[in-house]
Amino acid sequence: MTTPTPDPTAHPTADPIVVQDRFEVFAADLPRLRELLAGYAVGAAARGLTLVDEQVSPPLALADQPIVLWVRWNLPDAGGFWTARAQTHAPDVVQFWADVDALVVSRARTYLLAPDQVGPVPADTRPDGVTPSRWRETAQLYLPAGAGEAEMGALATVLARAAELPGIEAAILSPNFLADLGAGHFTWDLIHPDRESAQVARKSELWTDVLLPALEEHCASWSALGLDTIGAGAREPGIVGGVKRTALFRLLPGVDPEVEAEFARDTLAMPAHIASIRNWRLSRAVTLEWDATDGTAWDFVWEQEYADLDGLTVDYMIHPHHWAHVDRWFDLESGAQVVHPALCHAFAGLGEGFIVR
Fold first, then answer.
1. I want to staple 276 with a disulfide (CB 3.0 to 4.6 A). Which of 28, 128, 164, 311 is the partner?
2. pLDDT by residue (tens digit) across 24-38?
3. What is the spatial distance between Cα 21 and Cα 109, in angstroms, rounded to a whole number?
4. How many CA atoms does the CB half-sphere of 102 hold within 13 Å?
5. 10 Å Cβ neighbour count for 150?
6. Are residues 71 and 133 in the same domain?
7. CA 27 – CA 43 distance, rounded (Å)
8. In this structure, are residues 275 and 334 in contact, taking their beta carbons and an 8 Å threshold?
9. Is residue 304 part of a domain?
């Protein structure tokens, strides 16, 4: 069976997108910046970006302050955006922006559409706000390279016994549709009445002698995170048979707390614009004692539940609030990046909704 993967290019929007770069630069450095841009434009064309024009304001050299170079590009549609975006971290692109950052005072990239393409006023999601009352732990389980159905089945058989842990309310083991994009082979969610109950469960023989050894035997690594909720909402708390998406983010070093808070607000505003997000929860990641992450600790867990896969791979991916607004926090080319490019995007089938419990 072929596993589904996000493919917004399969359902592109028809509206062309203007990409506008704003470079604040001293006039003496303008020739070098344009030279760099000429080289960048060659690779950009291969990514689907068509150079439209370059303009300067004010149209003169100032002795004691920078001027602004405006560069405009065209993209065919939202599908074209993601095609170009997928190659943002190619070595030549990374080097270009490093060279630019060493030269300019500031830079910013924004995306423009025709005025008649402005979407409706966002929905009021305040009535959907909820405060989860249970303690939940979520883990991404990474099996060794080359692991197949037999290895996954062996691990799943043992982990099914997590439902027997003392005091546990639910243990949900979900095979991810794709063990890629930073995702593990499984998403494992454990729901306890409270954090103290979870600690008691981990002292049980079932945990120490059966479950933890199974992780050590079958997994190359795993992340284990508790959820410190920042915000959550539920349009359809009893959703059945949908898709759960789990995203894990790390911030770049030195992000200002006010900027971090703005990132969280923008993320939590997504359901107001994207109705296919039926339930949602943004949490600070609490690294647990049984964590075995291969790399730097995670900072955020962003979860959503959808009625079907198209809600994620189409509606979520092609909405301007995602690609033209929130994605700036993730994009090296935006001038506003705060999230490390090594993230986790896991999505799996959902038996019954649980993320806001």
1. 311
2. 999 999 999 999 999
3. 4
4. 8
5. 7
6. no
7. 25
8. no
9. yes
